[in-house]
């Protein structure tokens, strides 16, 4: 009789890897039915952002397909944005991403029942082109007393699958993070327009 190791059962894995090929040596040994959260980080002290090799093979693993949370934000990824739409929460970084891909994220959110957060780190926004596609932004400042902590641009869109929630697109200027997030209607900032 051949010995077959039992998959390691964990809901969360946080791997420090230099390359995606290293993650491929570990992820297949985790129980896909139990694993929900996957985070791949660069080793301590590594500052340079590199492309995550083997991204296509990683995304094909059952462990990744069945997970609900994925954080690859310390690497660049070069793959179709639609491959991340099955996650509830995803944090990624693209060296470049088209407005068409961002429209696809918005459309997926407005028709999804499960997507909660899609965050793009270090996004280089062309404000004029972005507003041509998504409409005029609401400029918003988060304050503590009179001190401005950080400034953002916000857009809101109806979610067709929910009457109580909307899609908030939020761009934090200081850190250049673009986030698509499901929020309660009560949390929409004052004077905001909720678009179709």
From TrEMBL:
Domain DUF38 as annotated: residue spans: 8-135
InterPro entries: DUF38/FTH_CAE_spp
Pfam family, one: FTH
Source superkingdom: Eukaryota
Name of this protein: DUF38 domain-containing protein
Organism: Caenorhabditis brenneri (Nematode worm)
Taxonomic lineage: Eukaryota, Metazoa, Ecdysozoa, Nematoda, Chromadorea
């Amino acid at each position: 009789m051949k010995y077959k190791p039992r998959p390691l059962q964990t809901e969360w894995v946080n791997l420090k890897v230099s390359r995606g090929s290293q993650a491929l040596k570990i992820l297949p040994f985790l129980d896909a039915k139990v694993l929900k959260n996957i985070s791949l980080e660069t080793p301590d002290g590594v500052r340079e952002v590199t492309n995550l090799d083997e991204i296509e093979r990683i995304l094909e693993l059952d462990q990744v397909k069945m997970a609900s949370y994925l954080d690859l934000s310390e690497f660049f990824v070069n793959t179709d944005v639609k491959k991340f739409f099955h996650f509830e929460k995803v944090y990624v970084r693209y060296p470049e991403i088209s407005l068409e891909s961002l429209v696809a994220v918005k459309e997926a959110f407005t028709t999804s029942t499960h997507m909660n957060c899609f965050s793009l780190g270090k996004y280089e926004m062309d404000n004029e082109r972005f507003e041509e596609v998504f409409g005029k932004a609401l400029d918003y400042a988060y304050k503590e007393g009179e001190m401005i902590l950080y400034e953002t641009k916000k857009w809101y869109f109806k979610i067709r699958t929910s009457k109580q929630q909307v899609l908030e697109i939020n761009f934090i200027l200081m850190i250049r993070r673009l986030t698509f997030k499901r929020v309660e209607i009560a949390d929409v900032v004052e004077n905001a327009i909720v678009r179709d």
